[in-house]
Amino acid sequence: MILVTGGCGYIGSHTLIELYENNIPFISIDDLRRSSQTQVDNISKLIPNFTNHKIDVCDLDSLEQLFIDNEITGVIHFAAYKSVDESVKNPLLYYDNNINSLLNLLKCCDKFNVKDFIFSSSCSVYGNLKELPVTEESPLSKAESPYGNTKQICEEILTDYSKKSNMNIVILRYFNPVGCHDSGLIGDQHRESVINMICKSYSENKVFNIYGNDYETKDGTCIRDYIHVSDLASAHVSSLTHLKNKSNQFDIFNIGTGSGLSVLELLVNFEKYNNIKIHYQFNSRRPGDVEAIWANVDKISKTGWTCKRSIKDMVTSTWQYFKSFE
Question: What's the pLDDT tens digit per position in 4-28?
Fold first, then answer.
């Protein structure tokens, strides 16, 4: 049984679908502070007899009871706050939640002899790098935000823990997930992402703000490696397969497409494939934003994982979900 923390979040919910479709039994926990009952209901339409346990991962007693009641063999840990901007405004919230949730899970894994652990990390751990694309061996720069710093700290904790544990650990460094499930039922309910703000600007007939047009990039706007969330979710199933019959395995994988797209290019593709026009303006840079980053994905590709969805799939599915969610 695979325990999925934050199972009703954006990436977590898509990963539940991947686990279900691959006949991998799982148990989902999510306190719904950053999700909703609507998300639970929609997951239930895709997974028969789906149940989410409303547990806060920072509540060690409740977490331990879950391990007592269920034969958990692996953990996929998504339950963390993820907004760069919010982390800058409220750093203690991020250090408290993101680090303590990991520590509680590792205590339970240690106590109940859990075999596999997959950690949801981020490309934000790389910070601003001059050499692109980044590989898993690229040096980690000073984090640009408290959010990024929590991911660096959590990776350090897992690295240290792996040296004394027989548990298999995989750290997945996500690049920028976008898009929604083919059914249109589940997607990103939080609107702080760039592509969701594009949707919101058009829907409300407002100007879309691009933060910074003076970066040293091809068009002056930030560059990211955007990846469809369903492709990202499938990497977790590939990671579980990769760990099969292994002991004390420790791996770090970049999860992206291997190419960068600027904010302006994302906007142009959104307009093109959804046949709409977005009015935009440039604003000053935001604190915590990285100038440019995209992935080298050669390492994860050797496990058999690959991206299957295009930028067209990303922008059209996002817009369809946004309209239905409204």
Answer: 999 999 999 999 999 999 999 999 9
